[in-house]
Amino acid sequence: MSFKLRVERAAHEKKSNIILALDPSVGSSHHLLKQSTRILEEVIPHICGLKINRQLVLPLGLFNGTQKILRLAQEEGLPTIMDCKINDVGYTNRAIADYYFKAGFDAVVANPFVGWIDGLQPVFEVAKSTDRGVILLVYMSHKGAPEGYGQTIQNPKTHNYTPQYVAFAEKALTWKADGAVVGATYPEKIEEIHSILKDNVPIFSPGVGAQGGDIEKAMKAGARYLIVGRAITLSKDPAEAAERIRNIAQEHSK
Ligand code: XMP
Questions:
Q1: pLDDT score, position 156
Q2: What residue numbers bound the domain in which 128 lies?
């Protein structure tokens, strides 16, 4: 089963579209593993997936600490995403994706800026051959996102002018990506990108809570999954925070 269907099934079964961004604060690897495991165990009933980024893999190591967390998620039927924003030449990209998939991740995040040939094509090849997913950055959530994702570009084939994020959304369709990341901090961009992707490529939206994004606006604009970190992980009661965010999102899901 494809990653896209697996995460859809998890969302249906868990009645949740919340993906936990497990970014614990800085500390020793022993402390980080304990803290991450505790938070994940507490919020499992309220989430449909887990996202980890290099902030955690670097101190824990890929094949030791990180795998312990991945196994816990897998036992609970939660798909896992490595937020590695792959962004290099194809030969290196393929090796990076291969390592993450071998460690047990179900999907990787990649940056379409590097293009297809000798860029992301090898990543899609290794992902599709192992039923894993590739999620593309289409419009990031931070304040500087318009400088790159929002610039106007000239399409090298048609010579037409178009926003960068529109070109990336079209690539997500053409390349059959399993998801597109669009920041919840830009609901108008979610709406515009959703009108291009429709239900073919689900939108994964980070940025609610700590970055100021609004759950209701993001959901109404067309986000399918919300990626949530600090609003849960830094809460005094992560389970309560996850449940509350899940319930608001469910209320406004289409
Ligand atoms: P917070 O604490 O802000 O965490 O809820 C958000 C999580 O999502 C990641 N993030 C992004 N990942 N594209 C991505 O691929 C984005 O535009 C983006 N914005 C935030 C961030 O690394 C953290 O794990």
A1: 83
A2: 3-252
